[in-house]
Amino acid sequence: MKKDMGKRVGKLLVFCLAGIIVLITAACGAEGESGNNLIAFEEDDEKVINLFGPMEKSNPNAENIARTAFDLTVAIAEEKLGLTVEYRTYTAENYQEKTYDDVTLDRVRNHMDDLYLLNPDTIQVLGEEGMLLDLSVLDSAENLREVVRTANTVDGKLVAIPQEVVVHGLFVNKDMFDKYNLVLPETPEDLLECCRVFQENGIETPVGANRWWLENFVFAIGYADLYNGGNTSAEIEELNRGERKYSDYMRPGFEFLQELIDNGYIDAETAYTYEAIEGEGPGFLAQKTPIVMAYWGAANAETAYGNPDFELQVIGFPSSRGQMPVVSMTGYGICAEAENLEDTIKTLDVLLSDEALQLYAETNKVISPSQNVEVECIPALKPLYDRVQDNVYVLGSNAGMKVEQWGNTCLIVRELLNGATVDECMAMLDQLQEETLK
Fold it and tell me: What pLDDT sits at residue 59?
């Protein structure tokens, strides 16, 4: 089971890494000229840092906001340090059956590049293997939000840092809630009552869902106390030693999803086939569906939910502690045995400096990993933003947990959508934990 699930997790997590960039932009930039991932460089005196990631450097004429933001910060580093950052990219057709995660694992282990953009599961694996540099050596690391440290620390070492904190929430049509005199839900019981009222008033399926993001309900409900109860580190250590079961935390979330399915508030069969935003998005924008789920950037992008014909509000997922943001993040890591280690450390330090992160955050309108960088968000995102600012959140990806969270939970939720019982899903979690801890 573990081997099969691992392959599926790899395919899933490349979506987490590159999919967010694709969804929030209008164009993805040009293909590499050669289509070859192994780039030969001419010998000269120029300093070169080799970056491996999922996408090419932006075409200057492409309207690619996310890549442009990153490229702008790279330009700052290149100018300050007098070097060049070369992009080496993953191209699925060239790697055939290998996922992005498979390729990054191989490349880091063989010291093929200097700097990498990594998914949560590879951050965890490579961190445990000692293949990634402890980024506490960076001056910019002193400015990090605690959520970033928690998510990317493995065996006491900070092994990856992102340029943005990705926050997931419920996107709601406030006009439809007002129409039926409904208050935005705080708890799972609140959401069930809202769905009941919507359904009684002819809205057949109140929650638009896809096959990627329903695990956010599980994390919010299951981990609300773990991350906000003041005993986080000790509980995670108990999970890592097998003294606690992930299934004990996650069962209430799976039971809640089952109740949503049983009542017809979520169409499980349809959700199983829907891609994120592409599937449920049209119904939400047409005001046929009052509730969907997405990530922070989707509220800013007109290609997603950035220009609706109604009042949009983005809130946390329901939990015993109220509306709960779910945070997941990829991160940049440095190969511990990078060929250009000293220059790579300097480069990443510039990319993660408050100056560069301010530019990145203002361009993408995102939450910065630096506690010193603030960007005014749109009104729709204010409820979600306020909770994160108050350090109220749960993590959907945490490199400090021995069992990878985001991908594995998503896959088991899919089994629920496909007809598995809650008990069967809990057995999958228990087996996964047992096999991992061996």
Answer: 52
The CA distances from residue 426 to 203, 248, 251, 265, 359, in Å, are 32, 8, 7, 22, 44
| Mean pLDDT across 91-99 | 65
- Report the 3 state secondary structure along 354-422: HHHHHHHHHHHCCECCECCCCCCCCHHHHHHHHHHHCCCCEECCCCCCCCCCHHHHHHHHHHHHCCCCH
pLDDT in tens, 232-265: 999 999 999 999 999 999 999 999 999 999 999 9
Count the neighbouring beta carbons within 10 Å of the beta carbon of residue 390.
9
Q: Element (H or E) spanning 321, and its range? A: none
Nearest to 249 by CA among 421, 435, 403, 418: 403
Tokens describing residue 176 = 């439809």
**Do the beta carbons of residue 88 and residue 55 sit within 8 Å?**
no
Greater pLDDT, 164 or 18: 164
Measured CA to CA in angstroms, residue 356 lies from 63, 67, 75, 143, 352 at distances of: 20, 14, 10, 13, 6
CB 155 within 8 A of CB 52: no
d(CA 172, CA 170) in angstroms, rounded, equals 6
Q: How far, CA to CA in Å, does 354 sit from each of 78, 361, 371?
A: 16, 10, 9
| pLDDT higher than threshold 80 for residue 266 | yes
* Closest to 49 (Cα-Cα) out of 88, 78, 89, 86: 86
Mean pLDDT of 165-171: 94
Angle at 240 between CA 238 and CA 242, to 5 degrees: 70
Contact of 166 with 329, CB cutoff 8 Å:
yes
Question: Is pLDDT of 14 > 50?
Answer: no
Q: How far is Cα 42 from Cα 193, in angstroms, rounded to an integer?
A: 65
CA distance 354 to 262: 48
**Which of 204, 218, 317 shows the shortest CA–CA distance to 267?**
204
Give the least confident one: 73-77, 107-111, 298-302: 298-302
> What span, in angstroms and rounded, lies between the C-alpha atoms of 21 and 26?
10
pTM of the model: 0.81
| Beta strand ranges found along 156-303 (DSSP E) | 157-158, 166-173, 291-295
- Amino acid at site 182: L
**Measured at the alpha carbon of residue 157, what is the angle toward residues 152 and 161, in degrees to the nearest 5?**
35
* C-alpha distance across the termini of the chain, in Å: 14
